[in-house]
Each structure stands twice: as structure tokens, then as C-alpha cells.
Design brief:
By secondary structure, the protein is mostly beta strands. The chain is built from one helix and nine strands.
């Protein structure tokens, strides 16, 4: 997992800041920051998502695309 900027398949941009572990299951989680202001959650809100899910592909219009695409270093 590269630290840096990623684009979600729906278009918004995020910055991966690190990998954390769930304290009970030890599952690896990606810690990432939204690089936009959300009316609902605020500006630059932090999120976590299982590493496996972060790296998955999704099917859009019959085509497999990465859920998050790496675009550049921090």
C-alpha cells in the first residue's frame, strides 16, 4: 500500500496516511483523509476501511475498475 493520493471510482480524492490494525482482530485497516469538504461530515474527515476492501475492484458499466486508484505521492 503506497502512501499518497488516491481517486475513488466515484471521482473524489483521498490521501492515504497509513495502515492501522484493528485492536481485537488485528485486521489491517487503511487510514485515509478526504480531500474535500463534506456537508454531512466536515472538511478533511478521516476514514478507515479494511485493506482488502480498499484494494478491491468494482464493476462499473460491466468493466472492472479499482475502488481507489493511486494517482501520486503525498
Amino acid at each position: 500500500m503506497k502512501i499518497g493520493k488516491y481517486q475513488h471510482y466515484k471521482g473524489k480524492t483521498y490521501e492515504v496516511i497509513g495502515i492501522a490494525r484493528h485492536s481485537e482482530t488485528l485486521e489491517e485497516l487503511v487510514v485515509y483523509r478526504a480531500l474535500y469538504n463534506s456537508v454531512e461530515f466536515g472538511e478533511n474527515v478521516l476514514w478507515v476501511r479494511p485493506l482488502k476492501m480498499f484494494g478491491e475492484t468494482v464493476k462499473i458499466d460491466g468493466k472492472e475498475v479499482p475502488r481507489f486508484k493511486y494517482i501520486r505521492k503525498g
